[in-house]
Amino acid sequence: LPFSFATFAKTFFAALPAVFIPIIIVGGIYFKLLSALQSGVIASVYALILAVCVYRSFSMDNFVRAFFNSAKSSAMILFIIISASAFSAVFMSSQAPKILKSIALYLNLSPLTFSFLSATIVIILGTVLDGAAICVLLAPALLTIAQTLGLGVVHFAMIMCIGAVLGSMTPPMAVSIFAAQTFSKLPIGSIVKGQAPFFIGFLAVYMLIVVFPFFSEFLLK
């Protein structure tokens, strides 16, 4: 469709109330006004108010359906986290972390080399595992090595989290692509083609974060 300023303005102002949802979550956490849980709860209540009073898209059928879908998704994620946590507890109680730390020191890895290795491992695992499971499994062991090499906690966390997201966008599993297909009902090929520019940009930013800790820590300064 040809561009229309009137349509753009109408769409912009219609979407403006919803823009405050991420502002509430990120702003509340960043300015230390709210915890992550409190931000999520307030944002959810605000979204419900928008659905009822502003967009008038609320119906009891949709609410019940969303409730049960959220319950199933939460149960699945919690099951994955519980399983990963059990494995992580066994792993940490063994000598494996000390062995990995000794290997890293023996190989004389630089912080940059370790960052690249961690990023590669996380992306590869992200193609077949959920991001939460990856963080629970790998973070305890790799964080010990990262701190030994002088990497900041926030920088390492960014490597882990963004790498897991990139992995979820990558075949063979590509969890994010299949999730998008479930909601949009579009062909997988169309979604892959549409996400390609964003994936490339995301990957470029990720490389900057891996190489330059400044990009992940400047907001803390």
Structural account:
There is one protein chain. This protein is mainly α and 221 residues long. It is built from ten helices and no strands. It has helices at 5-30, 36-54, 60-93, 96-106, 111-126, 131-148, 153-168, 175-184, 188-211, 214-217. α4 (96-106) crosses α6 and α5 (111-126) packs antiparallel against α6 (131-148). The longest helix is centred in the middle third of the chain and has 34 residues, at 60-93.
What's the SSE blueprint?
Layout: H1 5-30, H2 36-54, H3 60-93, H4 96-106, H5 111-126, H6 131-148, H7 153-168, H8 175-184, H9 188-211, H10 214-217
Helix pairs in contact: 1-2, 3-6, 4-6, 5-6, 5-7, 6-7, 7-9
Any descriptors?
globular; 0% strand; single chain; 221 residues; mainly alpha
Fraction of residues in H or I helices? over 70%
Order of helices and strands: HHHHHHHHHH
Strand content: under 5%
Rounded average pLDDT: 83
Secondary structure: number of strands: 0
Estimated structural class: mainly alpha
Entry summary:
The protein is mainly α.
